[in-house]
Specification:
Helix content: 10-25%
Number of domains: 4
Strand order of the largest sheet: 7-4-6-5-9-8
CATH topology of the largest domain: Molybdenum Cofactor Biosythetic Enzyme, Chain A
Strand content: 25-35%
CATH class of the largest domain: Alpha Beta
CATH architecture of the largest domain: 3-Layer(aba) Sandwich
Largest sheet: 6 strands, mixed
Number of helices: 7
């Protein structure tokens, strides 16, 4: 067996980001940019009002107050979306809406709340300062400036910037297409009632969901039976994808053929056992230049191994550079006893509050106990040499559920 660290290093050496494709910006969310984005013009493109109010010359309001307002003649209204009808002279004002261009001659805006309309005039009840409430052309960014760098993850803010810059299409890294295969004569699909000795193919659906949660596209190829012909047929179909993920068939049983069939198809196998619990029987190789993962058949083992090895690989293929989930130190709420020799990933409930981080290991750590995976939101990571921990000790925790830090009420 190799260590978890050695396995991850071996895998990621073989993974390359996929090529680029052009997509409309409405489809670019959570994708990685493959190009720098430069501004085509200034933003704002012209000086404009940051408030509903009156555009005027600040000198005309010197000494103005509620008790002694300055009276200015209103020469026209200027809604957003229209252009100024003329320049201002001394003693004049323009009623202006937020976003409208600042007329020539105006050097300040007074918000409407500090004014009073008066028969074609306006009473200004405060002294304006030069530049008040004017958004200057280019104060956000200038023409030619790089506003989003290549390699950035596209969030809603980046979509806003792309739209502001008038960019309808953008080059992003392709989403990996991942072929998902379940192996085993004991498997039934969802439309079948499993007879004695058979189980539902939960892994196929769980892995497809994990693929989607990693930002990739799952291609579900169904069940391969425990014979070389069936496996070869499914793996041949899988070669049209960017990555292959199978579950089951990588142990040492008489009918575990995945490793052998991968070799027959020209796969360069890198390893097939890792010192991890759950999930020791993990095969990894490269077939036709594409990474191929043979995951364990036990549901929890399969999900743990996917989280630690497949997910970072798919993120790297998608162009991401931040590949791993964050870990935190949390105070353990009860004792843990484990057998050393493999790095343990224990299902747990992680809590974050004003007092700090705590974590509770869940009862029922068997690799087939799906109910504890449903209840869990994190893994306690125990080093390979660890024999356990006492309640009150600090342990390393890896949350995998993004709702961990969510709150039912605002925290402000």
């Amino acid at each position: 067996m190799i260590t978890v660290e050695e396995a991850l290093e071996t895998i990621l050496k073989e993974i390359r980001p996929l090529g680029l494709e052009s997509v409309p910006i409405s489809s670019a969310l959570d994708r990685v940019l493959g190009e720098d984005i430069s501004a085509r013009g200034n933003n704002p493109p012209w000086d404009n009002s940051a408030m509903d109010g009156y555009a005027l010359k600040s000198a005309d309001t010197e000494g103005a107050s509620p008790e002694k307002p300055a009276r200015l003649k209103v020469i026209y209204d200027l809604p957003a979306g229209q252009t100024p009808k003329g320049a201002l002279s001394r003693g004049e004002a323009v009623r202006i809406m937020t976003g409208a261009p600042v007329p020539d001659g105006a050097d300040a805006i007074v918000m409407v709340e500090r004014t009073e309309a008066a028969d074609g005039s306006v009473l200004i009840k405060t002294a304006a300062r030069l530049g008040d409430h004017i958004r200057r052309s280019g104060e956000d960014f200038h023409a030619g400036e790089i506003v989003i760098k290549k390699g950035s993850l596209v969030r809603p803010a980046e979509v806003s910037m792309l739209a502001t810059c008038g960019v309808p299409f953008v080059f992003v890294h392709k989403r990996p297409r991942v072929a998902v295969i379940s192996t085993g004569d004991e498997l039934c699909d969802l439309n079948e009632a499993p007879p004695m000795g058979k189980i539902t193919n939960s892994n196929g659906y769980a892995l497809a969901a994990l693929v989607a949660a990693s930002g990739a596209q799952a291609v579900q190829l169904g069940i391969a039976r425990d014979n070389r012909e069936s496996l070869k047929e499914k793996l041949a179909l899988a070669m049209s994808a960017d990555c292959i993920v199978s579950s089951g068939g990588v142990s040492v049983g008489d009918y575990d053929f995945v490793k052998d069939v991968l070799k027959e198809l020209g796969s360069s196998m890198k390893f097939w056992k890792v010192a991890i619990k759950p999930g020791k029987p993990l095969a990894f190789g490269v077939i036709g230049g594409k990474p191929a993962f043979g995951l364990p058949g036990n549901p929890i083992s399969s999900m743990v191994v996917f989280e630690q090895f497949v997910r970072p690989s798919l993120l790297k293929m998608s162009g991401r550079t931040a590949l791993f989930r964050r870990t935190f130190a949390a105070r353990l709420t009860k004792d843990i006893r484990i057998k050393p020799g493999r790095m343990n990933f224990l299902r747990a409930e992680f809590k974050a509050d004003a007092a700090g981080f705590t974590v509770t290991p869940l009862d029922g750590q068997g690799s087939g106990m799906i109910s504890t995976m449903v209840r869990a939101n994190s893994f306690i990571i125990a080093p390979q040499e660890s024999e356990g921990f006492k309640a009150g000790e600090m342990v390393k925790v890896q949350p995998f559920d993004e709702t961990v830090f969510a709150a039912t009420e605002p925290s402000y």
